[in-house]
Write a structure and sequence with these properties.
This protein is α/β, with parallel strands linked by helices. The protein has one domain: Vaccinia Virus protein VP39 (Rossmann fold, 3-Layer(aba) Sandwich). Helices cover 36% and strands 23% of the residues. The protein is built from nine helices and ten strands. The chain has helices at 4-7, 11-19, 23-38, 57-63, 74-84, 116-119, 124-133, 151-163, 193-203; strands at 45-49, 66-71, 90-94, 107-112, 135-146, 180-181, 187-188, 206-212, 216-222, 231-232. An eight-stranded mixed β-sheet has the order 3-2-1-4-5-9-8-10, with helices on both faces. A two-stranded antiparallel sheet has the order 6-7.
Amino acid sequence: MSGYYRERLSARRLERVYAIAPPRVRQYLDAEIDHVLSLMRPGDAVLELGCGYGRVLEPLARKAGFAFGVDTSFESLARGRAALERAGNCAFARMDAVRLGFPDGAFDRVVCIQNGISAFHVDARELLRESVRVTRPGGLALFSSYSDAFWEHRLAWFVLQARAGLVGEIDHERTRDGAIVCTDGFTATTFGAERFAGLVEELGLSARVVEIDSSSVFCEITAGAPAKKGRTP
């Protein structure tokens, strides 16, 4: 399933996914970026996992000193490079998010939002470990997934994607409990607050888990900090 975004939902088709997003979904998308920006400092070195064609990386680059995006789709990366070439502080590379080719502590912020932790279809433990490895001590690794409160809006957005031929037809009998299932085999699950909290505790990481905009659950991991439990409503 990790190849779905590489082979079917890449570049122009991925752009179309966001172009048809209803107003409430666009609010959610903007809220995620705004939240990440609020946790960045001017001049930060930022890595985005699953950067696609640079939708998120572009606003982050305006605040960052340097922004690096990695993805598995050559087509999306090429589109991102072309779109952000003039920014002058962006780079792109094809790379697996659980096997990053960077030294330890290379970035101030590592960003994996809009449900990448589920959409990548990789081992979540390995994803968090590798992300924290390349985050400098005291820096942040940021992950997000969907809030349960956003379910109806999320499902409506996927229905629009299916009607546009971007994903398979929704299998309504199997689509429930935060999981969207399509007849072509595509599945989109979520990572809730309890699951985030349990995972960071298991890995001995220090993190805050917080819901924003009644649409996203963010897990904000501080690299190198003593493990502790922290959650805000």
